[in-house]
Write a structure and sequence with these properties.
- The chain is mainly alpha-helical.
- 72% of the residues lie in helices and 3% in strands.
- It is built from 6 helices and 2 strands, in the order ααβααβαα.
- The chain has a two-stranded antiparallel ribbon with strand order 1-2.
- α2 crosses α5.
- The longest helix is centred in the C-terminal third of the chain and has 35 residues.
- The termini are far apart.
């Protein structure tokens, strides 16, 4: 029974709930950023050279080389890595890695900008909160001040 009670205490702590909310919000936020990268930023990045990094690969076996050679001989575009894999070929798809690395860099930069904006806003709100005025002297301090003043006048 101790194990169940310990688990219940752990699961009902506020930190676990905060973590769960953070993961859910983070997942939803990740899809928004992924859409921004795929639909808004990557088309602009690929404009100068019309680069499609996803189709950059090296064929690794005979089946893959045969598919690429057949497409080249027919004057067709090279098959995608997925098409080669589906046909039993093997490819070293470094272009997909480059795309994911660019996506990660853009995602990290976007998150950095959001955190920076949040921190700036938080500092501004904290600065706007005026420090409370200093408390007046306590009764004890007033009494000590009176004693001090009486001692000064009696000399």
């Amino acid at each position: 029974m101790g194990f169940v009670k310990e688990f219940r205490e752990f699961a009902l702590k506020g930190n676990v709930l905060d973590l769960a909310v953070g993961v859910i919000i983070g997942g939803a936020f990740g899809t928004i950023i992924k859409s921004a990268i795929d639909d808004l930023i990557m088309p602009i990045v690929s404009l100068p050279g019309k680069a499609d990094f996803g189709n950059w690969y090296l064929p690794l076996n005979d089946a893959a080389r045969k598919l690429v050679d057949t497409a080249n001989a027919a004057g067709l575009a090279a098959p995608s890595p997925k098409a080669i894999r589906d046909a039993g070929g093997s490819v070293f798809a470094y272009g997909s890695f480059i795309t994911e690395a660019i996506n990660f860099a853009i995602l990290a930069f976007c998150i950095f900008l959001i955190v920076k904006a949040f921190n700036t806003a938080r500092k501004r709100f904290e600065a706007e909160k005026a420090a409370p005025p200093p408390a007046g002297p306590t009764n004890e301090e007033k009494l000590l001040a009176e004693i001090r003043d009486l001692l000064k006048t009696s000399r």
